[in-house]
Amino acid sequence: MSEKKESVLAGFKAFLMRGNVVDLAVAVVIGAAFTNIVNSVVKGIISPIVGAVGTKSLDGYSSCLKGPCGVDAKGEAIGVNILWGSVLNAALTFLITAAVVYFLMVLPMAKYLAKVEERRKAREGAKETIEVTELVVLKEIRDELVAQRGRTPGYGNGYGNGGPAAPGSQHHQH
C-alpha cells in the first residue's frame, strides 16, 4: 500500500509541475484581478449612464409576476419578482469583459504571433534561398571543372583529381 501512496504522490507532483497547470493558476489569479477592474467599469461608468436614463442601478429593474410586489421593512422582497435588471447587469458585465479581453489581450497577442510567424517564415525562406544559391554555385564549379578537364589534353589521371597518371595508364610523365 505504501508503494501505491508514493506513486499517487509522485503522480500528483508531476501533475502540479506541468506547465499548463501553472499557466492555469496564473490565469485564474489574473482573471480574479481583472474581474475587479471590469466590475469597477460597470459600477463607475455603465451604471451612471443607465442611471441618467432610468434608475441608478440595473439591479432595480424588475417585473412583478405575482403581487403584491415590493420590499418589506426588513428589506426582503414581497411577492414574486423577476429580477431582469440583475440578469441584464450580469450580461453587460460579461460582454464588457469579453470585449476588453478580446481587444486588449487576444487581438494584440494574435497580431504579435502572426508577426513572429511571418519573421520565422522569412528566415526559413532566406535560408532556403541561400542553400539553393550555394547548390547552384557548386554545380557551376563542378561543370566548369569537368569542362576544363575535357579541354586540356593529357591533364588529369581520369580519376578526377588532376594528379599524376595512375599506374598502367597511357599518360607518361616526362
Indicate the percent of residues in helices. 55-70%
The average pLDDT is 76
Order of helices and strands: HHEEH
Widest sheet: strand order?
1-2
Straight-line distance between termini: 91 Å
Tell me the major beta sheet. 2 strands, antiparallel
**For the CA atoms, what is the radius of gyration?**
39 Å
User: What portion of the residues fall into strands of 2 or more residues?
Assistant: 5-15%
Question: Globular, elongated, flat, extended or rod-shaped: what is the shape?
Answer: elongated
Helical run tally: 3
SS content category: mainly alpha
Low-confidence residue ranges: none
Question: Total strand count, please?
Answer: 2
Would you write up a description of this structure?
By secondary structure, the protein is mainly α. It has three helices and two strands, in the order H-H-E-E-H. It has a two-stranded antiparallel ribbon. A hairpin with a 5-residue loop joins strand 1 and strand 2. Helix 2 (19-53) crosses helix 3 (84-151). The longest helix is centred in the last third of the chain and has 68 residues, at 84-151. It is elongated and about 115 Å long. The N and C termini lie far apart (91 Å).
Blueprint (SSEs and pairs):
Blueprint: H1 2-17, H2 19-53, E1 63-71, E2 77-82, H3 84-151
Antiparallel strand pairs: 1-2
Helix pairs in contact: 2-3
Give keywords.
two-stranded antiparallel sheet; mainly alpha; 2 strands; 174 residues
